[in-house]
Structure of Family 65 glycosyl hydrolase:
Amino acid sequence: MLDLNKIGEINLPALDPHDALPGSHALLYTDWTVTEPQFDPEQLCARETVFTIGNGYLGTRGSFEEGFPQALPTTLIHGVYDDVPVIYTELANCPDWLSLMISVNGERFRLDRGEILHYERQLDLRHGLLSRSVRWRSPTGKTLDLEFQRFASLDDQHVLGLRCQITPIDCSGTLAEPFPWKIEVQSSLNGYPDTQGFDHWEQIDRGQIEQGTGQGVWLQVRTRSSHIELSMAVKLAVMGADASFQVTNAHGYSTLMSAFSAIAGQTISIEKVVTVFTSQDVEMPVQAAQDKLANLPAYGVLLDAHRQAWDAVWQHSDIEIEGDRTAQLVVRYNLFQLLISGSSHDVRVSIPAKTLSGLGYRGHIFWDTEIFILPFFTLTQPAIARSLLTYRYHTLEGARRKATHSGYQGAMFSWESAATGDEVTPRSSMPTDPYAEAVRIWCRDREIHLSADIAYAVWHYWQATGDDHWLRDYGAEIILDTAMFWMSRLEWHAQQERYELCGVIGADEYHEQVNNNAFTNRMVQWHLETAVAVYEWLQHAFPYQATALAKQLQLTAEHRLLWQTMIAKLYIPHDAKTGLIEQFEGFFQLQDIDLSKYEPRDRSMQAVLGIDETNQRQVLKQPDVLMLLYLMRDTQALPAHDNVLQKNWDYYAPRTDSTYGSSLTPAIHASLAANLGDAADAYKQFMQAALTDLKDNRGNTRDGIHGASAGGVWQAVVFGFGGIQLKDSAPIATPHLPPSWTRLKFKLNWRGTWHSFDLVPSPAQKPFSACRSSCN
């Protein structure tokens, strides 16, 4: 295995697959596995995030079955939101299905007791399996080998599996009591999960499952405000020993207890299978959970089906990299985190910024999904992409309510969205210092580019899939009603004879109230151009639906003519002579900054300078103009000038706080740098993005996976290093492989046809050979 802390910036050391630093707590890896070789309590919560498993319906953090002080055991289910003071709503931490307490002769197994003689935890990305191996000596000298395994079935989203194999070890000379030892196991469904200090669940009922073989219990709970009912059912089986069973149903806890005797070298297997349903899935979750459990095959059969489902997914979504094992692993890790977060089954949910791996941002939905995450699904798992975009359709009413409340027409998508699409961005931060003032969060009011971002995602989904019926039934309404919002939001300035957008926040959130942000204005202009094209297409292809939708939205011919005028006269600050785009009106008059003078540092420039001072400097949280050029790479972004990307890259990249500003930055910089031919910087930025969570390089992995960064990693590989351009007939590659990469392979689905890319450099490294693309 290789050590993630041994990574060079460009040329990686040729390490033996079993190398590891003595005593190191770093993660080790192979092409498909991530391994924690030793337990470090200080990294407990970050590693819980790293070892998250899921299946697109739910995600479960890598907490220990037996528990540990300060742990954050969390299971999140898409769409299970509940009200919470100040924050409006959040994903509710669901009952803990992992709980498995093991005692030997009355001594409870826990890693904060006794002595850890061996420890290893491993995530198998190929098959979505989390395993842990522990040799533990109790305070009185009893030694056990324990092997844990868990999975969230990709074959059946309502099924979870957990197995623990226990083997007593004869350690002569210790204080241990003579064999046989009495081992007790308690397996619970914990109905009192903590959600950052808040209990979202009312206890409704619990009970025992009567069935011919095995033992089972069930639990029924309901969220306090949203009244979403949830039920879990569990059965326990013990193999390798004669076991007795007992059921207890303390309030909020459904528990199965089993006891048996074991001698040295005897291995006993405990298999725990759980089913889970909510009232968002079925009318009667309790009955559904019990019926599902009663008809499930054996644990091994469930595991095989789960493995086969993962094999099928990787057939289309995998990326193969030769010559760079580190890159191979980190890319697959980020893709795994995306795949366990996206649902094709429920069109009323989307992927939160922290996926389903943590409570950061309360499970709210941002532009992260449409701009950073969605392209991966659009081009490798289009059914999931369609589902994610349909969520935005189902939240249009919330977007319309926000527009009306703000005094505008049409639909204005919320910066942070949850179940209904209404704005759930907190108005102010919650300071931990009792003497600090609350900081106003202006994104909810001013960061309005999201509506154009969603339209951008809708258009590109349609371009990639040719899904005319979805655009007719869902996508067109999204694009047109948000265009109605822009029509009412744009301001006409007669003196300059132009339309403007004033008082906004662009993608760069270090500048909070600016006029004519280039990113926002150009995206709005593009949006209106697209709205005109979509309506014309709808009139031609589906005239009845065009008429009906125009009537529904009160969209008139005069409105569409006004859109054309706005497109022509919307101001975008730029210098036609130099090709330099001004981030917003007046940006070039701000005080310049040399970020190198603030090194070394371990925090953002906003934290260094303060909010007010940062507002007055030419320092960026994330690439605003560069992000615009990236998104508009297949069309014309202003200005029409030679080397426009290079000129703006040279100006803005040195002023971007890419290390500590936003996790959204490095992957986009990597893609742009690759296309500009800067292999060294491209690879450095790529690895920074790809290791965001595996190395916890921002110090906040405990809050959950950085989903946008994970999506950006895929884009950096495909659009950056692969040089993919999406043409009408088929995707075309002009690769820019890093020096260490000898081969890059991936598949893209373009309008129903799979295209396989097998990219290799020429023997001389320059130029790269043309891609070989074949359709399957």
Summary: The first strand starts at residue 2 and ends at 3. Residues 7-24, 764-776 have pLDDT under 50 and may be disordered. The chain is about 30% helix and 20% strand.
